[in-house]
Design goal:
The protein has 428 residues and is of the alpha+beta class. The protein is built from 12 helices and 12 strands.
Length: 428
């Protein structure tokens, strides 16, 4: 071909019938020869995918001669994604979103427990600093809970936060969520949070071995343990807490039927806020006792509060609590209607009947297991609650039921990004 006969065009200008020359090595293109007439759309697609800026062609050898527009027409090459690749890509994105949400909750919970630990360390030497730290911590939680229309309770890992502070932070978070469910005024919510956070502050005056009761405690030990309420009231006064918050510390072991301590007062004499903290404190103590061997599941704890210990709570508060936590609170181990096993990791406090779960699937690595929103699964429901010891070993190892439960709140948005409502979750 002479110089006069040499023509170059852009890949976007290629058409069927053109005779072209590929001036690249034969290993750099998928065609059996380097010069040929374009006969199919597939060839066009491959040519345009080579990444060449110009391609040489011969008008004389081309059939169905075409006029070449000097202004190239952009050609959009649509690459069709396979269903498998699309599903894998979506799953990867969902897992990333899921992990990010969990890490955010664990980070905030960890910060809260560290602040509580600092508060505990300075309460004697700097009671005013301790008070200011408590107010700041509760206000931060409260702002997060109140800014969303719906919040979710999330289950966290046992490694989340300072161990000694888990109970106090748990009681605070759940009490605030219950206060929101009961539509308490914002000013009452702040008092509720401070009282809940500091309800056990008097235990710092006790020897370490007496800060928790167990079945082996004798009468003298029980009496000494109960003195933590009076110690807490004294510390509250040193911190210059409000009379309302101080009263919450004084009444957090009182029961509606008058069987509590130290005053054996009945429910009518307890404040609304005291009833909340008393109930939530008992729930968390059932799930997180000093001896983990006697711990009960969240589902069992709710059942016990509603049956065996029903008289210890006023009906209104208990009903609202069960409605908020759901029949199967985060941390519950369940069997689904299709016989598979699962663990509840998150409950939308506004729509608790269909929680979010991790399902045992031996074909999926546990670190790649997706959180499934049962609200979106019309064919699947929860058939029954189980004790962890009832699980087959392989299922137990996969789901890893918590020995200790800690909770945080998050916006009730599905970790899969399918809805935008806040929810209560347990960290995994």
């Amino acid at each position: 071909m002479t110089e006069a006969q040499t023509h170059y065009i852009e890949p976007s200008q290629l058409r069927i019938g053109m005779y072209i020359y590929l001036d690249i090595g034969w290993m750099d293109h998928p065609f059996p020869v380097s010069s040929f007439e374009i006969r199919s759309e597939e060839q066009l697609y491959k040519l345009r995918s080579l990444g060449l800026q110009k391609i040489r062609y011969s008008p004389e050898k081309s059939h169905a001669a075409q006029k070449i527009d000097p202004t190239p027409t952009p050609v959009v090459v649509e690459i069709t994604e396979t269903p498998e690749a699309k599903a894998a890509k979506q799953r990867k994105a969902l897992l990333a979103s899921q992990r990010a949400s969990l890490m955010a909750c664990e980070r905030q919970f960890g910060q809260a427990t560290q602040e509580f630990k600092h508060l505990s360390e300075v309460v004697h030497a700097q009671p005013k600093v301790a008070q200011e730290t408590a107010v700041k911590l509760v206000q931060g939680m409260l702002d997060g809970i109140l800014k969303e229309e719906e919040t979710a309770i999330r289950l966290l890992s046992e490694k989340a936060g300072e161990k000694t502070a888990l109970h106090s932070v748990n009681v605070t978070l759940i009490s605030l969520l219950l206060g929101k469910a009961l539509e308490l005024p914002k000013e009452d919510m702040l008092e509720l949070g401070i009282g809940a956070l500091l309800h056990d502050v008097g235990k710092m005056e006790l020897p370490d071995r007496l800060r928790w009761l167990d079945d082996l405690s004798n009468m003298a030990e029980r009496q000494l343990y109960q003195s933590h309420v009076a110690h807490g009231v004294n510390l509250a006064r040193k911190m210059q807490l409000s009379p309302s918050a101080t009263l919450l510390i004084a009444q957090h072991h009182e029961f509606a039927d008058g069987s509590g301590y130290p005053g054996q007062i009945s429910g009518e004499k307890m404040t609304t806020l005291s009833r909340i903290i008393s109930l939530v404190n008992r729930f968390d103590n059932l799930c997180n006792p000093s001896n983990v061997a006697v711990a009960v599941t969240p589902h069992e704890a709710l059942s016990q509060l509603f049956t065996k210990n029903k008289t210890q709570s006023d009906t209104h508060t208990l009903t609202a609590f069960i409605k908020m936590m759901g029949i199967y609170p985060p941390g519950s181990v369940v069997q689904l209607s299709d016989e598979r096993y699962a663990m509840v990791v998150s409950v939308n406090s506004a729509r608790p009947i269909k929680p979010r779960v991790i399902i045992h699937d031996p074909h999926v690595p546990v670190d790649e297991a997706l959180v499934i929103n049962l609200e979106h699964e019309s064919e699947i429901g929860i058939r029954r609650s189980l004790k962890p010891i009832q699980l087959p070993k392989a299922v137990f190892d996969y789901l890893s039921p918590r020995k200790r439960l800690c909770y945080f709140f998050e916006r009730a948005s599905d970790v899969s990004g399918m809805d935008n409502n806040p929810q209560l979750s347990a960290v995994r």
